[in-house]
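Example (one chain per record):
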Amino acid sequence: MYNQIDSNKRKSWFLMAIFILVIIALGWVWGQYYEGGYFTVILATIFAMSMSLVSFYAGDKIALASAGAKAIKKEDNPYVYRMVENLSISSGITSPKIYIINDESMNAFATGRDPKNSSIALTTGLINNLENEELEAVIAHEMSHIKNYDIRLMMVVIVCVGIITLLADWLMRSFWFRGRDRSENKGNGILIIIGLVLAILSPLFAKLIQMAISRKREFLADASAALLTRYPEGLAKALEKISLQNIPLKKANKATAHLYIANPFSAKGMSNMFSTHPPIAERIKILRQMA
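Predicted structure:
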């Protein structure tokens, strides 16, 4: 388990570095096209940092609101509240705020910027349909996302994908409206070709990188949850039940889909190569190898 955790961390940070390089490349092409030099790269970097700050401090609130999650107190659901508190003590982190999503679909996610400012959201379907050790394993999985700072990383990923898509769209529009005026200059013609390739392919690369990071973090959280509960079979059984359901989450959206423990659109479609989640069968197989 420790080897898997270390491996996933290295690969995830490597993929994040690729994100940064793509943003810099798009900013450079934009600057060269408008003869702005490195000023445009600096401007793109400042814009990216500004958007990151917004997601850093308000991203969790946006994610919870979009899911229709409601905060609860201990008296509202002592069973869930005590379970989260006990796992927080075991993992050595501050107990996160607890939210309930009134939905029959079995799912959960964690969000926030660090362990001291974090939240866990659970659907009523998850709470009602899982046994004690299974629900505990799911909460441990989300707790692992918090402890491993996945919640911060995934919020940054959301912003990076948005920025890359936005910059690519701007480049495409610029080449479309101003391409004729620049076509006489051979250097600009070559630059336009390079820019078009980046503008067309970078959003696709960004989405693929997002999926790769999300999948790696799910494997990491599975391993960390098994380490926390010392019972990998609990999470394996929970994932089996989740995979058998055919109830999509009512308020699911593509921007936050990767935050959930399972694909919120369709539990049956997790083997899809374009899913933000790894196949559940593969996750279960790895968990049972840990037992």
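Caption: The first helix runs from residue 2 to 33.
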